[in-house]
Amino acid sequence: MAKASAKKKSPATATPKEKKEKKSKAVVKLTAREKAQRNLKVVTPLVVIYTLAASYYTGTLSGKWIWFSWHPLGMMAAVIAIGLPSVLLKKIGGLENIRMHANLMFLGACSMSAAFYVIYSNKDMFGKEHFLTTHSWLGCVVSIGWVSTSIVNFGLLHPDYASLSTRRNLTLRSGHKMAGRAAFFLAWATCFTGFQTLQADPMYQAVFALPLVAFSVFIFI
């Protein structure tokens, strides 16, 4: 009986389909942690550049840098340049990253408080009334919520200061996650409504808003 001998195909004689299958098998799927690490490296410089550019443009619409200009810079630094990398650090996980997440969010709360003081004192300087627009009320709600939750979470979830029981409380951690997403949504909506009050051109508004929509993927998904 004749034995059939199977010949191995060389890479040169392999069909396109076989080459594609071999290539797909060689691709290693990234873990959630590795994706977050990659996103952090890519997104951090982008959000910093966006924050500096957008806040400088917004702050100098009057023609020069004035006291008011520190308001958009402080707010956008808190909720974009500091806030988004902080979220990605949390997604990476690990004690050091969680510690850095908590510290950065507290730093963001300080930046937001300073920015709130700037706009409040700026209106006082010109004898204007407070909280007359949608933007001002959204800003008030976001500022109070952001700062208060940062302080509370610092005491309940921080790896250095919170008790082990509260840090492992799944209800608390889930509430923290959902409240954080809501805070980011309101904060970025507030940034947009603030830009609307200063720049009425829809094209400029779209340029301001589109990066925020793109960045939101890294928080809400």
Describe this structure in words.
By secondary structure, the chain is mainly alpha-helical. The longest helix is centred in the middle third of the chain and has 31 residues. The chain starts with 15 loop residues before the first helix and ends with a helix.
Output the helix-strand order.
HHHHHHHH
Share of helix, binned: over 70%
The largest sheet, given as strand count, sense and whether it forms a barrel, is: none
Arithmetic mean of pLDDT: 89
Q: Outline the low-pLDDT stretches.
A: 1-8
- Strand percentage, roughly? under 5%
Query: Which structural class fits the helix and strand makeup?
Result: mainly alpha
Report Rg: 24 Å
Number of helices: 8
Number-wise, the strands total 0
How far from one another are the termini? 62 Å
Q: Which overall shape is indicated by the principal axes computed on the Cα atoms?
A: globular
Oligomeric status of the shown chains?
A: single chain
